[in-house]
Amino acid sequence: MNNRIAAVIPCFRVSAQLPDVVRGVLDQVDHVYCIDDACPEQSGRVLEQQLTDPRLTVLYNNTNLGVGGAVKAGYRAALQGGFDIVVKIDGDGQMDPALIPQLCGPLKECRADYCKGNRFFELAYLQSMPSLRLFGNTVLSLLSKLSSGYWRVLDPTNGFTAIHAEVLRAIPLNKVSDRYFFESDLLFRLNIARAVVQDVPMHARYGEEKSNLQIHKVILPFLLGHLRNAGKRVFYTYFLRDFNIATLELLAGLALTGFGLLFGISAWTASVASGIPSSAGTVMLAGLPFLLGVQFLLAFLNYDIQNVPAVALCDSARYRVRS
Prior knowledge:
alpha/beta, seven-stranded mixed beta sheet, 50% helix, 11% strand, disordered C terminus
């Protein structure tokens, strides 16, 4: 099957690197969509002045929608263009376009529905990564595992991705975050659709470019977003669409842990107020349910880790799954 590949490049303050990036990407794909997200440097105009390739389309957002909003505009244009695979790559030059065939390989073979770069695969890949960025990505990887359900996926904020067009149509793009939470939110939506996600090892090139991401402004939104998605995913997977042993383990774990914790705090408070030590029976009544609850929660977690989608949607007829 001849898969036609389009690339989507969000453009914001990348006018210096963008032309060279686009030239490299055009060597690997059939068409490139660059989205000028109300860039103050007019990245789109700069690109049009330097490149006249008919395989290049520059789109303009009248207002800044954020990286997610820009990528979604490119996704919609690629779907309208009838492409089979859509790659997303940043315009700052950190990602090597020569890796695009490797990124798209599992999609062409229908072994995966969504592939993303993973800078954590080799220790050598991490040596050039700034320490703060390395720490932030490590924390976000743990939170993303919980919220998305892809426990074997690392580097969730990696912007070097490829998605099968049919699976992209199964994702409600209007519900996916417009800002920096875009990649993490998309992983959650992919899990709800039961899509197969695969990491592809890569290295990043860090130069003089400056990230537009301000850590102190996104910590709280990222945390709240992951907690919200974790709750929604658990509800969809273990209550709305199915009710199985993992559901019972979760309910029992929460109930027993909650009872043991609350009873223990209550007994400890009463003991402090009266000056009388709690009896062994009181301690057992608090400790035993708590420990049993933790065991049930660990059993649920083990089930959830094993419950990762394994059959690619692009190799089946389940394209119209909606969350």
